[in-house]
Amino acid sequence: MPADTLREVAAGLVVLSYLGLCAATWRHHRARRSQAALANAALAPAAAADAPPVLVLHASQTGTAEQLAWQAAQALHTAGVPARLCSLSQLRAEDLRTAERALFVVSTYGEGDPPDAAAPFVRRVMAAQRPLALHHLHCGVLALGDSSYRHYCGYGRALDRWLRHCGAPMLFERIEVDQGDPAALQKWQHEVARIAGMSDLPEGLAADPFEPWRLVVRRHLNPGSQGGPCFHLEFKPTAGRSLGRWQSGDLVQLLPPGNASRPREYSIASLHADGRVHLLVRQQRHADGTLGVASGWLTDGLALGGEVALRVRAHRHFRLGDNAQRPLILIGNGTGLAGLRAHLKARAAAGTGAGPAWLVFGERQAAHDAYYRDEIDTWLASGVLERVDLVYSRDTPECGYVQDVLREQADLLRAWLARGAAIYVCGSRAGMASGVEAVLIAALGQDGVDALIEQGRLRRDVY
Ligand SMILES: Cc1cc2nc3c(=O)[nH]c(=O)nc-3n(C[C@H](O)[C@H](O)[C@H](O)COP(=O)(O)OP(=O)(O)OC[C@H]3O[C@@H](n4cnc5c(N)ncnc54)[C@H](O)[C@@H]3O)c2cc1C
Ligand SMILES: Cc1cc2nc3c(=O)[nH]c(=O)nc-3n(C[C@H](O)[C@H](O)[C@H](O)COP(=O)(O)O)c2cc1C
Predict the structure, then answer these.
(1) Which residue has the higher pLDDT, 51 or 373?
(2) What is the pLDDT of residue 247?
(3) Pick the CATH number of 319-462 from 2.30.30.110, 3.30.70.100, 3.30.1330.60, 3.40.50.80
(4) Which residue's CA is the closest to the ligand 2 atom numbered 12?
(5) Is the pLDDT of residue 202 over 60?
(6) CA dist., res. 237 & res. 275, Å (int)
(7) HSE-up of residue 123 (Cα within 13 Å, Cβ side)
(8) Is 110 helix (H, G, I), strand (E, B) or coil?
(9) pLDDT of 203 strictly over 60
């Protein structure tokens, strides 16, 4: 076969395998690849390592952007184009000054905010008084989002504006992906293939399917509470279907009944080894007295034994990952105990090798809202928990909230961090998570908090 034809066949194979990888990404973005393996694979020297590598940068909360970035870096690498995969949390301004091409894959959270890991980059680099001069850096932006949020692709758009403001020429117009939209992902594949020096082939991409699961346990945990009713729920896959896989820190998405509803997310409160998905769900009630669509159905409308459409969603950023052996400071309120309970179960299952944990949990009334109290006592007795602070805001006027405990215990907090502890925050974004963040900044300084984020030692699952 002539050399040209051989090269074309090889190029075609690379493109095909890349498209296959992309399709697999969206369907199986929770595939269990460790971050270290991801980085190593993409950072291995490519065939033509003399050119400066294309930076493939990601800012991701639940791992989709990271996985797409990894696939792109891998495709470039396979095509002989050197690529360097890097989280925005690890990126220095200097890296941007010396590179020639950069692809950004970023998602959006909160009020159009970046994922947590990108917050130091935003503060240090994007918000710097003097904009960087990036006239030499050819950029492309893939913005992941969900158009049912008010600030659709807010961070991707802000990043795109900032890059243009810094004078960066664009390799292609920003691509926005609305809830995994296959057409937008195809455009992205096309652009990556072009940078890799290849033509591409169109292929549709499907989202993960929802599977039928059955509600097998529902327990009202806080009768008589001043707070909204809170329920412990357990689900099993329907007969013949597999449990799938998840790790502590992961989420489920549930499709409420009715066509117009988008999926709702819930933190998984159990381990795969439990054989069931446990959730801790607060029944929401609107001002007009109607119940929240999903929480009302799960806690009231759905009969025991009834089916739900559910899928497990990896939440890489909130997994234990590299923190599996570190001491853990677990901070949460209300239904935020769900994700923390999964981590404590993981710690209990791991045995004595892993570091100790400190739980700081807030609710309203000790008499009603002490969820999973027997388990917490058992973990305290067995040493899984070294310390527990339970704070009930309605019991006495001076009781306060979890952030007040942390403020009072700032010395202890610093001591745990000096022992290498990682912090996990789970529960309400407004009030709790913002209050905790303010206390951490007061105790450690903004640089100290940024350093924790960069080291992967400050993780949040807040909503
Ligand atoms: C990462 C994460 C983890 C979470 N973990 C938990 C948990 O462990 N326990 C828990 O109780 N809650 C958790 N939540 C909150 C949960 O996902 C729901 O928001 C909550 O149960 C209220 O949903 P609802 O349908 O009952 O209320 P609703 O008021 O019916 O809906 C909630 C919101 O969804 C939006 N919405 C409603 N209908 C539509 C529609 N048709 N189209 C588009 N948007 C719509 C609206 O913005 C509304 O404010 C979590 C949320 C996130 C993001
Ligand atoms: C709590 C929460 C808040 C979100 N906020 C926004 C938002 O404000 N704007 C938006 O476009 N998408 C928003 N999204 C959608 C995510 O950006 C989208 O699912 C993305 O694919 C996630 O990518 P990641 O896995 O890399 O983090 C939100 C998702 C969640 C769960």
Answers:
(1) 373
(2) 96
(3) 3.40.50.80
(4) 145
(5) no
(6) 9
(7) 14
(8) coil
(9) no
SS (H, E, C) 213-237: EEEEEEEECCCCCCCCCEEEEEEEE
User: Is 104 within 8 Å of 142 (Cβ atoms)?
Assistant: yes
List pLDDT tens digits, range 87-116: 999 998 899 999 999 999 999 998 889 999
Q: Around 9, how many Cα atoms within 13 Å sit in the side-chain half-sphere?
A: 6
Q: Which one-letter amino acid corresponds to residue 81?
A: V
d(CA 111, CA 113): 5
Residue 245 CB contacts under 8 Å (≥ 6 apart), including other chains: 30, 32, 272, 312
- Kindly report the CATH number that applies to the domain delimited by 3-195: 3.40.50.360
The one-letter amino acid code at 218 reads R
> pLDDT higher for 271 or 36?
271
Is 453:119 a contact under the CB 8 Å cutoff? yes
pTM score above 0.85 = no
Residue 18 has pLDDT above 70, yes or no: no
Task: Indicate where the chain has its CATH 3.40.50.360 domain(s).
Answer: 3-195
Q: Which of 109, 295, 369 to mutate to test the pocket of ligand 1 (most atoms within 8 A of CB)?
A: 295
CA 107 from chain centre, in angstroms, equals: 10
Atom of ligand 2 nearest to the CA of 111: 8
Task: Write out the residue limits of the CATH 3.40.50.80 domain(s) in the chain.
Answer: 319-462
Instruction: Supply 142's token pair.
Output: 């893939």
CA gap 446, 62 in Å, rounded = 24
Q: Does domain 211-316 have CATH number 2.60.40.1080?
A: no
Domain with CATH 2.40.30.10 in the chain: 211-316
Work out the pLDDT band at 229, boundaries 50, 70, 90. very high
Q: Nearest ligand, CA of residue 152?
A: 2
Atom of ligand 2 nearest to the CA of 115: 27
Chain-wide mean pLDDT for the chain?
88
Mean pLDDT of 390-406: 91
Supply the pLDDT for residue 7. 53
